[in-house]
Amino acid sequence: MKSESVNKAIGSSATVLTGADTDYDSLLALIGDARFVLLGEGSHGTREFYRERARITQRLITERHFTAVAVEADWPDAYRVNRYVCNQSDDSNAEQALGGFKRFPTWMWRNVEVLDFVDWLHDYNGTLMPQLPKVGFYGLDLYSLFTSIDEVLHYLDKVDPEAARRARTRYACFDHFRKDSQRYGHAVGIGMSASCEEAVVTQLRELHVQAEKYLQHNGADATDAFFYARQNARLVMNAEQYYRTMFSGRVSSWNLRDRHMTETLDALAQHLSHALPEPAKIVVWAHNSHLGDARATEVGQLGEWNVGQLARQLYGERVVLVGFTTYQGTVTAASDWDAPAQRKRVRPALAGSYEELFHQTGIARFMLPLRGNNQATQALSQPHLERAIGVIYLPETERQSHYFHANMPQQFDAILHFDETHAVKPLELGSHWETGEAPETFPVGV
Question: What's this model's pTM, rounded to 2 decimal places?
């Protein structure tokens, strides 16, 4: 289809976003009675993606009674935020509550937009009647191996000191790795150290066996406390496998991680539903690469699956997948793992990409529904390049590092496009962030 026809098809189906309160009326209509709304992002460092996800989430909470926000973040760090927004914390403000996010990349959750949303969620929960459940904030990821070990031990110290002693003996398997998860994975992967698999599986199994006993502790809070501890123990088990396999191939470790995130989402939905008159509704914030159906992408053809695919297989029409894209602007990202955050200039999208097609419409911001057989889904049904910027952005290897082929109408139920976007502002601004942006004359060729 010629580009003029594609532009016309997109324009006829798109809803222009103006910043008005009614911007997402059409998206909420598309969402309908869905229980799971997965809101993506084309990068981990774009202000508009965070801000607009927050706007949509606020409407889902206030108008559709969603009861939780689950994010691409570590379980214990996010649970500290959960305690704060539910008024169960010693933290005096949102910035303190976000203090658990110390692992690279800290700007993903310690940024101005997340701070504002956490403030809003805390204040909203404060308006609810005491008998009503609060809207929680939870993490889905599995990188917190050692923090989660500490949380399991802290829980057992309170409810069963003898079990805590046994747990310390099992988890001592990790002691000589100095809380370096990748060091553990590498040592096991090359045969320099024995695996801790049996120890972590045994520990999780013992928690399950003792569930009835532990649920008698702490009164009304026992169920939440046990759920938090059990999820930490399950995270330790899955993280051990993840780090042990990450040196054997990207697909296997990727699949382990996204399976863990999906299982956490499902466990959270079941846990929250017990205290509600109807099944819990959850908003998920994560990268497009996790939330768009992997079966519609070239990486899916190589054997990867992701949360979006698994959620569709689990929940069917009860899940809605929403992607976010940009054509150009700035982004907060690093040049290498554990490198400083920088405000980098995002090159204009490559020719032939979905992002370039959206740019050619001349519409600065829009929502495009991709369900059903409308003009837009027909026009975009052939695979195109799609950009993905994670915590690392390497403009000098743009095509190789940040693009893959996808069939967007099969990948997402809707797309939000923001033609020019801006870097999210970290709460801690280092000197590298201010000097990291390339000048306007930076080369834009492939």
Answer: 0.95
